[in-house]
Amino acid sequence: MEIEFKKTAGSTTAKCRGRLTIYTVAGVREAFNSIVGEGKPTTLNMEELVDIDTAGIQLLMALKRQCGVQGIELNIRNHSPILISILDLYGLAGYFGDRIVLGPSMRRDFSFAYGTKRVIHD
Amino acid sequence: MNYPEVNEVFFSECEELLQEIESVLLHLLEGIEDKETINKLFRHIHTIKGSAGIFGFEHIEAFAHGLENLLQQVREEKLHFTPQLAEYLLKCRDHLAQLVECAAANSIPDQDLLEQGEALTAGIREFMPAGNGQIDSPPTKRSAAIAPIPETDREEDTWHLSLRFKPDTFRNGFDPLSFIRYLNEIGRIVELRVIDRDLPPLTELDPENCHLGFEIRLRTPADEGEIRQVFEFVEDDCDITVAPEGGRSQPAPAARVAVGVTPATTARSEERLPLPTARKARKAKYIRVDSDKLDQLVNFVGELVISTAHICQTAHGRGYEDIAESTDTLTKLVGDIRDSTLQLRMIPIGGAFNRFNRIVHDLGQELGKEVRLEIHGAETELDKSVTEIISDPLMHLVRNAIDHGLETSERRAALGKNPEGTLRLNAYHETGEIIIEVGDDGAGLNREKILARAMKAGLVKAGETLTDTDIHRFLFMPGFSTAEHVTNLSGRGVGLDVVNKNIEALRGRVDIESQEGRGTTMRIRLPLTLAIIDGFLVNVAESSFIIPLDLVVECLQFSEEYLVHGNKKVMELRGEALPVIRLGEIFDVNGKKIERENIVVVRQAGKKIGLIVDELLGEVQSVIKPLGRIFGRTPGFSGATILGDGTVALILDVASLVGTMEKREKAEHKKRKKQISEPTPQHEIGPEAGSDDETEGQGHD
Q1: Mean pLDDT across chain B, nearest whole number?
Q2: CA distances from A12 to A6, A24, A77, B274, B575 (A)
Q3: Contact B479, B493 (CB under 8 A)
Q4: pTM, whole model, 2 decimals?
């Protein structure tokens, strides 16, 4: 997965393109480490995320949790359908706490029946 | 409804469930109490109740219902599980088993059984926490603890799944995603939580490891077996727990029990498509097979082996090279079939051992002794028929051990021993045999007592020196017992000789190892398979013999030079002393003197022996035909077999051969000793009379 960083003085945007799966997580981890290292509020733009699996979501969870521990603001925006799908199935909407925008056609596909409560990271 | 074949399945299922219930209760008695165990107990009772209801066995259903209510209280933690409760439930389980037996025998419970049931049911009420004293009547009413479930959901149940994936899950090619998605195909995930407790911090995380777990609530009409089947392929990479949530609304399990049932059954079961193996998804890898059919298969395979050997030999003998090559391949294939078929009959001995949990528990109580059962090697496999035959001998040895071997707790404490005695059941394989040990850490065998008893019975003369082994062998004589009191169970002296006979009938033997004050171990040796043998064929003069291949260590050419100087019965092999036996001598078959003899070194019970033979003819596999009754149990042979060309070869029983040799040697040795030690002339004429050792004053003829 390619990450295009756009850094300003006060924050960072990371546009993610491609796949975040078992095949790519090893490479992506370094990038995520740098996000934590810099400590600036960061937004992940997931519009062009084409594929994600459990390994991928696990890495995102690790990132989110680490940011929580260190008080770094992390947001995920423009969720692609594949990302919404896994967040729905795994009930992780509350874990990340981001606002997920469902297009009209998507409303039928996802129920978010559970896991929408905000999770307090300790 | 009453379909006999279907009933059969119900009864055998009940038998297994009751067995498991007993296991679980014994576990709970040891204090291993956890939610999962209690749930298991509940589910088993629930299944029995439900099935009994569908099949119309009202007594079973009613009694199980009472138990179910009681267990529900335990599950809801309104009732604490005490050892008393466990003991009581054991009694209830026994009663339930009796009811099932009754139904299986196609009769109704008699007055005694009914009264016993009422008494137990009343007793159950005593255990119930206040306010739940009412046991409502089955089957249509639901117990108060369960909320009524809306009509539309009647077919579905809610299950709780706990998944913990192991670190290598991704590496092994699995993704939890696919399995969890599939759950949505067989039902609806009502709730799911990802467990990230084991997820390391980002910097320490190896992203290719899987550290996630899942807690899932699933609503599905599927049963536990079908749910577990979803995870069949990832079993090794995931710890899975599946449990039903809350109480169930109707006797759903009945559908699983019905096998190949006609449309006359309830609509519900049709919808569920009862699969014969679905119920046992945990055991989904097994298929029930009629054991008679299996025996028949083994027979056929045996004949196949013989025929194939015949073809092979003929082809080689006539020089048909191309056919010979094919028959060689055929022989190998048949060998594989033979091995696989024999494997079918092998079952772990753990099944036979597990019964003893209950037996030891009951015996301990009855005899007022504290006993703990230790089982090792439960996974050791042996032929099914052998398992059945040793069951009784084992039982007797266990009873003996507890009754006579183990001391009372007071006595043990006084001796500085752990007041709780240990009974040890152990099984393992050793070169072609299976060894089963029954051991105790009790008082051991009292040599003096046995000797005294033997003398009293006239079996021993004063002054005779006997080894420990000899003394132990007295115990195997009919009617021999040193017990001071005869109990219901043992001490009558009718046991050990029967045990020995049964074991010898299986071509096995029993050894005793004992240390006074420390304990006794009875060791049973049995051959691994009764039907087909891999053997090494040898010739002595014109006769053919087969030596079990498992026992053969090596073969070499033999020369008189190898014999240790002065001793015709021992040779030296690479620095070791090796006792040798001339087969020709021992069986009295002597033909033309052959130029080069050969020796086959075998290992029997840890000891090596050399067998001197004429020709070595190589490996054969053949079916063991028992020797006819005329031959009784001729020492030295454990059966016969028909070779490819039709000749009969006798199969050597090396152990008994060695035994016979030892006996002969001892007799000779004794004879020699007698002449040395006796002061009065014996008037012996014979080879020994002219021996070199002379005592004073003794003349010889």
Answers
A1: 77
A2: 6, 22, 13, 58, 81
A3: yes
A4: 0.46
Largest CA distance in chain B: 111
- Reference B48, options B35, B27, B65, B31; nearest CA is B65
Nearest CA of chain B to the CA of A69: how many Å?
Answer: 10
Determine the Cα–Cα distance for residues B244 and B46; give it in Å rounded to an integer: 12
Which tokens is A45 given?
A: 């733009």
Distance CA B421, CA A47 (A): 71
What pLDDT score does A121 carry?
A: 44
Token pair of B223, please? 């049963």
Q: Where are the alpha helices (DSSP H) in B258-290?
A: 267-272
Q: Residue B186: pLDDT above 50?
A: yes
Nearest CB partner across the interface for B180, out of A33, A62, A89: A89
Dihedral over Cα of B652, B654, B656, B660: its sign: positive
Cis bond before residue A104 (omega within 30° of 0): no
Phi, psi of B485 (to 5 degrees): -115, 145
Structure tokens at A92: 């992780």
Span B658-677, average pLDDT? 74
User: Would the CB atoms of A95 and B208 count as touching at under 8 Å?
Assistant: no
Nearest to A66 among B191, B192, B202 (CB): B202
Tokens for B363?
A: 């015996």
Cross-chain Cβ contact A61/B194 below 8 Å: yes
Nearest to B95 by CA among B13, B16, B18: B18
For B400-422, how does the pLDDT look when each residue is reduced to its tens digit (9 = 90+)? 888 888 888 888 888 888 888 99
User: A interface mutation test: which of B194, B206, B215, B238 has the most A CBs within 10 A?
Assistant: B194
- Which 3 state secondary structure label does DSSP give B571? strand
Can you tell me the distance from the alpha carbon of B656 to that of B652, in angstroms, rounded to the nearest whole number?
9
**CA distances in angstroms from B409 to B357, B364, B422, B614, listed in the order given:** 19, 11, 11, 60
* Residues A97, A55: Cα–Cα separation, whole Å: 20
Per-state percent for chain B, helix, strand, coil, to nearest 5: 45, 20, 35
Q: List the single best residue of A60, A90, A122 to mutate versus B (max B Cβ within 10 A).
A: A90
Q: What is the pLDDT of residues B331-374, one digit of tens each?
A: 889 888 987 887 887 888 887 887 888 888 888 888 888 898 88
Model pLDDT for residues A56-100, shown as the tens digit of each residue: 999 999 999 999 999 999 999 999 989 999 999 999 998 998 888
Is the bond preceding residue A41 a cis peptide, omega within 30 degrees?
A: no
Query: Distance between CA B376 and CA B356 in Å, rounded?
Result: 13
When scoring A22, A30, A51, A85 by the number of chain B Cβ atoms within 10 A, the one with the most, hence best to mutate, is A22
